Amino acid sequence: MPPRAIFQTTDVTNYPSLLALFDLAFKTYKRIDHVVSAAGIVEIGNWFDTSLTLETVRQTPTHKVMDVNLLGSMYVTRIASVYLRHNRGSNCDRSILLFSCVSGFKESPSLFIYQASKHGVTGLMRSLRTYISSPYKHHLRINTVCPWVTQTDSIKKVEAQWKRAELPINTPQQVATVATGVLADQSLNGMSMFIEGGRAWEIEQNINRLETEWLGEAPSKVLALGQGLLDDGSIWTAPERLRKKSTISVGVPPGVPLDKINGLTNGVKHVISDGVTHGMSNGLTNGVTNGLANGVH
Fold first, then answer.
1. Is 2 a member of any domain?
2. Could you report the per-residue pLDDT of 94-153, keeping only the tens digit for each?
3. How far is C-alpha 77 from the chain's CA centre?
4. Which uninterrupted H or E stretch holds 89?
5. Residue 125 class from Cβ within 10 Å (0-12 exposed, 13-18 middle, 19+ buried)?
6. What pLDDT does 288 receive?
7. Which segments does the entry list as coiled coil (predicted)?
8. Which residue has the higher pLDDT, 276 or 217?
9. CATH code at 182?
10. DSSP category for residue 139
11. Which residues contact 4 (CB under 8 A, 6 or more apart)?
12. Alpha helices by DSSP H, 84-203
């Protein structure tokens, strides 16, 4: 019997390092069911410091935040899209969960590069959610979770002020419970869960439902026509506009349309309890919890 859990030090900015992690998991368990990309770091310095001069601006700034948060998520998702579709039986659910943040959809002053990276993570999910769930493509689900302030080392600078204001703070366990619930619910694809105080709220449905209000009815119609023309976007990457079915052998239902999801996302407010973890290994919840507690988010 393989161990319930294994650990390997991995650098998400190093492609071979990530491949080694996936190889170890695949070799140990003979298959990979779900992948969680949670590595993240906060802002380093100030890219737009007002003290910059014509001389100091010549020094190349660090892009480690972008490398870890966005490039790392892209690497993980690319590799996962291949490993997840191997050794899968019929009706075997497989999914990818990316950790974005409130900064992935709401402005975060002074977190310039961090916010750009998290917007990128959310954008990656949105770009992939139709493509990756197609039965003729990878036939996988992909979602994001967007935790607000969580009890980790990264909130030390604001923790006291936050508590005085009696604002909610997630525990790593609460975030892990939501993450596990998203992985467990086979109806969820292309969703973003905002997590505050242990409660989860799905945001993608309302963004789509209210488009005519925030964009306007006329531009929404034109946008829909253009999106329909582009379809799955293959025109950007394929040498010719041909519709070819993949030879990938899959057994999972395609992603559920945004207007037909249920389970965790019933209505506008979606409160996730311990019940959503039914059928999922406690090891997964504990693993995500431990990762969050050590500063990844």
1. no
2. 999 999 999 999 999 899 999 999 999 999 999 999 999 988 788 999 999 999 989 888
3. 9
4. none
5. buried
6. 57
7. none
8. 217
9. 3.40.50.720
10. -
11. 281, 283
12. 112-128, 159-164, 172-184
Residues 6+ apart with CB under 8 A from 124: 70, 73, 74, 77, 98
| Those residues with Cβ within 8 angstroms of residue 105's Cβ, 6 or more apart along the chain or in another chain | 119, 122, 146, 192, 194, 203
How would you list the strands of the sheet with 141-147, edge to edge? Answer: 34-37, 95-99, 141-147, 192-196, 199-202
The dihedral region occupied by 64, where left means phi > 0, alpha psi between -120 and 50, and beta the remainder, is: alpha
The rounded distance, in Å, linking the Cα atoms of 178 and 28 is 27
- CA–CA gap between residue 123 and residue 118 (Å, rounded): 8
Give a yes or no: residue 96 inside a domain: yes
Residue 295's Cβ-count burial label (10 Å; 0-12, 13-18, 19+) is middle
pLDDT, one tens digit per residue, over 85-111 is: 998 877 889 999 999 999 999 999 899
Q: What is the pLDDT of residue 252?
A: 36
Distance CA(164)–CA(44), nearest Å, equals: 26
φ, ψ of residue 98 to 5 degrees: the values are: -105, 135
Domain that residue 259 falls in: 15-293
> Is residue 4, in this structure, part of any structural domain at all?
no
Q: Are strands 192-196 and 199-202 parallel, antiparallel or unpaired?
A: antiparallel
**Rounded Cα–Cα distance for residues 287 and 282 (Å):** 8
Write out the E strands in 188-261. 192-196, 199-202
In a domain, 254, yes or no: yes
Cβ contact 147:290 at 8 Å: no
Yes or no: say if 42 and 111 are a contact pair by the CB < 8 Å rule: yes
E runs forming strands in the chain? 34-37, 95-99, 141-147, 192-196, 199-202
